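User: Hi! I'm working on a homework problem where we have to compare a predicted structure to a textbook description. Could you give me the structure for the chain below?
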Amino acid sequence: QFYQACKTGIMDRALSIYFLLGWLGGDLLNLVGSFLADQLPLQVYTAVYYVLADLVMLSLYGYYKVKNRGRGFAAPINAAFVFLSLGTVWTVSLLGRGAAVAQEPAAFKGRSLLSAGPDELGPKPFSKSEIVGFTIGSVSSVLYLCSRLPQIYTNYKRKSTIGVSYSLFALVMLGNSLYGLSVLLKNPEPGQGEGDYVLHHLPWLVGSLGVLSLDVVISFQFLAYRRGRPSPREERDALLGEPGDG
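Assistant: Happy to help. Predicted C-alpha cells:
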C-alpha cells in the first residue's frame, strides 16, 4: 500500500480516512489490551508493528491530502513528512523495546487435548487487569469490524479501487487467518479448559477472524471495479477541466 500510494499519488481519494482511523484505533486498543490481558508475546509484537504501520499510513494520507490541495508547498511538505516518519519510527521502537522487556520468554507447546486431566480442567478466573484488557480488546475488535465499512462505501462511491493495493487486503486476510490459528493452536495453561482458553482470547480471535468476511467483500469490489472505471463525478470534473470548453 505504501508503494501504491507513492505510485498513484491519490491515496487521499482512494482510502477512507475513517478506515485508517478505525484501524489505528483498533490497533492501539489491541496493543493496550494485549498488555493488560496477558496475551501471547506474538500478539504484543504484532500489535506494536500494526501501530507503526498505521501511523506511517496516516502520515502518507495527510501528505498527499495537503500536497494535492497545495502543490506550491511541496518542499515543506516533504520535509515535514520525513520528520514525522522518523519520529514515528523512533517512538514505536521504544514501545517495541518495552514490549520485549515486559514479556518473559516462554516455551511454546503445541495444542494438546490431553494437556490436563478431566478433573483438573476448570475456568481460569479473570484478574482485574485482565478484565480491563478484555474490555479494551472487545472495543478493539468492534473498531476493526467497523473500519472496513467506510472503505467499502468509498470503493462503491468511486466505482474504482485505483490507488488501493489489493496486496494489502490479501495479506491482511492471510495474516489474520494465521494469527487466529496461532492463538487457537496454542496449548492452554495447565489446569485450564479449552473453552475457557478461547474465552480469554475471544476479542482477539473476533478481531482477526471476524473481519475476514468484510475483507472478502472488498476483494469482490476489486473484481467488480478491476477496470478502474471512474465515478460519474470524476468524469464530470475531467470534462469540465478540458481546454476549449466554453
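For your comparison, note the following. Residues 90 and 102 are 19 Å apart (CA to CA). The chain has a mean pLDDT of 74. Good luck with the assignment!
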